[in-house]
Amino acid sequence: MISDEELDAYRQSGEQVRVVRDGIESNDVTGIVVAWDGSQVLIRRRNRKVVKLDRNYLFQPASAPRQSPLE
To answer: Would you say 58 and 42 are in contact if contact means Cβ atoms under 8 Å apart?
Structure first.
């Protein structure tokens, strides 16, 4: 699970993040961290739609090479 400190750093920097949900790259969600609570994170996508995602997914900078959630 991603920590509050990491989420806050992403939110303050405005950096695009990639949320890897499974082994299929097309299922990834990219966007900006907007808010979070104990179990979910709110991500604003490029088209301004907001998505709620579980905090147990793999969060990484969108500019970094994609990592598999199984690694």
So the answer is: no
Contact yes or no for 40/54 (Cβ under 8 A): yes
- What is the C-alpha separation between 50 and 24, in angstroms, rounded? 21
* φ, ψ (nearest 5 deg) of residue 51: -125, 135
- Model confidence at 9: pLDDT above 80: yes
**pLDDT of 70 higher than 80:** no
Q: Does 70 reside within a domain?
A: no
Q: E-strand spans in 1-71?
A: 17-20, 29-36, 40-44, 50-54, 58-61
Q: Which domain holds residue 52?
A: 4-61
Helices (H), the chain: 4-13
In the structure, what pLDDT confidence band is assigned to residue 6 with cuts at 50, 70 and 90?
very high
How much is the pTM?
0.89
